[in-house]
Design brief:
Length: about 300
């Protein structure tokens, strides 16, 4: 076991007994939602995973320790501290650990720490990707590189619709990352079920997802697998409404000169305000939906 990694008693016991485990990120707690909804949602997602037969492992960096499995008090701590917590990508881990600081894990760092702990399945909201205008800004999420090298299955509601979805898919293809649509042949776009872009393969059952991931790892192919799970129909937003809100938020972001890892939190917060909170309600429901699928899939892995 990595000397910088701490497992919660629940996660350690589950690993020892071969029980299914689902990793969860912590950026959604500190940067994705306001307090107290962030804490309430994190605890609700954990309970959803338990209700579907798996053990949740919320991941973060606290006091310089890599944590796989948080206590309710630790989740509350991250939720209250909010954006004071560093949004930690791969490049941040060495310094945070050396300094004994806190970090909220992105998709990238959650994959890294999950893999260290031996956890194979990770549920999140949406992945990062190639940002609009990346042909000049070179703003490409580290999530895509991590998917190319770290063997964890990531279950999400597609790439965030603030991104250039076509270029994101092209990048993943170049890196050899399978993009699976769960019950769909079309890439879901986070708040909406449709994007106009096709995924690589459609898979309809957790059992087949588990079989495909097992085959990938047993063949020694590096990297992860991206499973895109559409938001439930009843919570899907009107594409015209959400796209107009995204366009307005992107324009404001550019006008303010916001760049790098501050971009996504700014855009998500502005989209929430522009839509009167509807986007936040959809965000919560799609995360719960992904947690259910992740738990069922983890239970099918051998």
């Amino acid at each position: 076991m990595n000397k910088y990694l701490d497992l919660s008693p629940e996660v350690a016991s589950a690993l020892a007994e071969g029980k299914p485990i689902v990793a969860l990120e912590s950026t959604i707690i500190s940067h994705g939602m306001p307090y107290p909804q962030n804490v309430e949602t994190a605890l609700r997602v954990e309970q959803t995973i338990r209700d579907n037969g798996a053990v949740p492992a919320t991941i973060a960096v606290i006091g310089g320790r890599l944590k796989a499995g948080l206590t309710p008090d630790e989740i509350e701590y991250l939720g209250k501290k909010g954006r004071e917590v560093i949004k930690a990508s791969r490049r941040d881990l060495p310094v945070l650990v050396a300094r004994g600081e806190d970090g909220a894990t992105t998709v990238t760092t959650t994959m890294i720490i999950a893999h260290m702990a031996g956890i194979k399945v990770f549920a999140t909201g949406g992945i990062g990707g190639v940002h609009r205008g990346a042909e000049t800004s070179m703003d490409i999420s580290a999530d895509l590189e991590e998917l190319a090298q770290t063997p964890v299955m990531v279950i999400c509601a597609g790439a965030k619709s603030i991104l250039d979805l076509g270029l994101t898919l092209e990048y993943l293809e170049t890196k050899g990352v399978p993009v699976i649509g769960f019950g769909t042949e079309e890439l879901p776009a986070f708040y909406t079920r449709r994007s106009g872009f096709r995924v690589d393969y459609r898979i309809d059952t957790p059992e087949e997802l588990a079989a495909a991931f097992s085959a990938k790892t047993e063949m020694g192919l590096k990297g992860g697998m991206l499973v895109t799970n559409p938001i439930p129909e009843e919570y899907s937003m009107d594409p015209d409404v959400i796209n107009a809100a995204i366009d307005q938020a992107v324009a404001e972001c550019n006008a303010k000169g916001i760049k790098g890892k501050e971009t996504t939190p700014f855009l998500l917060a502005r989209i929430k305000d522009i839509t009167g909170g509807d986007s936040l309600a959809s965000n919560i429901q799609l995360v719960l939906n992904n947690a259910r699928l992740a738990a069922k899939t983890a239970a099918c892995l051998k």
